[in-house]
Amino acid sequence: MKLLLVFVLLLNYLQAEQVWLVKFPYKHNYLSRIEKIFPLIDLIEYDYYQSSYIFLIPRNYASNFTHFIHQSKGSYRIIVDNTKDLLKKSRQQSKRSIASDNPLDKTYYQRFLSYDEQQDWSRLLSNSSLTNKSIRLHTIGQTYENRSLTVIEIHSKSHPRYRKGRRRKNAVFIDGGMHAREWLSIGVANYVIVQFLKLKGKDPKVKKILHYFDVFILSMMNPDGYEYSRNENRLWRKNRAPTIVSDYWSIDASCFGVDLNRNFPFQWNNTFGASPFPCSHSFSGLKPLSENEVQSVVNFLRNKTYTRHQFYAYFNLHAYGRFWLLPWTYTTLERVKNYDDLLKRSNNVASTVLNGTYKVGQASSVLYSCSGTSIDFAATLMPHAMTLELSPMYRGLPLCYDGNLRKDQNCTIGFMSGPEEIEIDGIEVFNAIVEYLYSIIQDNFV
Question: Which residues, by range, are in coiled-coil regions (predicted)?
Answer without folding.
Answer: none
